[in-house]
Amino acid sequence: MVTFKTLTFKRFTEIVFLNLFLFPIYPDNVKPTFVVLFFITAIYTLIKKRSCVFNSAIKFKNLLVINTSVFLMLVVSLLYSNNTSFGLKYIFRSLPLFLFPIAFFVLRESKTIFSVKLFLKAKLYFYISTLILFVVVFFIFYFRGFVTENYFLNYSYRIIGQLGRYSMHPIYASLITSISIIFSISLFKIKKYKLLIIIGNILLVLNLILLSRKSAIIIMSVLFFVFIIFNKAIKIKVKTFFVFLVLLLFFITIKFIPDISNRFNDFSVLFDNTKASSTNLRINLINTTLNAINEKPLFGYGIGDTKDVLSALEDKNSFFKGKYYNTHNQFLNTTLATGIIGLLLFIFFYSKIYN
What we know:
The protein has helices at residues 9-19, 31-49, 58-78, 84-93, 96-106, 116-143, 151-161, 170-187, 194-211, 214-230, 236-256, 258-264, 278-295, 306-315, 330-354.
């Protein structure tokens, strides 16, 4: 057991790092505090070791520049924005894009942080905290009397605004759920976690279905098929059974769960931009954003003016009915704010991460 007397700085750093993977159970107003704490811990490590960042290998310096480039690009775009108030708020929300690369650069030689054992523990923390979050959400809705015959239809809408500081958009909830399911693959290999993972994954898949985001369902289904088909450790009969089971579950879900049925029915009106649907909303947003980009293609409008520019164009389109929608696309939003120059830098940033 760790106490204040036995707590070493090395152990404290480990705890602060693992704490980042408990974010699903923390309210939104608390999360920034822990990000800053992790950053301060990293800077203190730098001071404590009295090391100089300039003595680092060139590959680490290059990584630091690349990983902070997206944030710095947004800061530069603020200089030619008219609405600096909105721009500063956006920059503040984007601070983790700057703080995390610096923190990990400083801690690059830490055998504690960059260890397979600790990362496995981090995956477990994230998995369990996600399970706790959505199980608690279910019980909150149950005791409020929301678990009715319309639960499937209303679940994804209730989590948007009826959970206080834990409210979130269903697509972000789907993202958290999907990451947890992906993390479970490596956790399942550990014998003592197998029962937890089996039960947990059943609950997480049900949660993914309840959230009714077709993009998340399609992506996770594709990833599942890729994992099953190309996994040499799984026998052909087992592969066939699971593929059939998932396909059956997929079609039953689409057919009998109203919210998901409605979302997949979007494809029937895909080329009729006058019909209201989530797919057509995104098509209209793409077209509107591209029209805006065409006006200032090289450097964009600056991060502060993206909302004003998009809002003005959306007001002219009857499809949006006077409501404001953001681009729903990071690549388009980056191009709108920083132009083709920013987009190329953004793509380069992602290519380096995947490499």
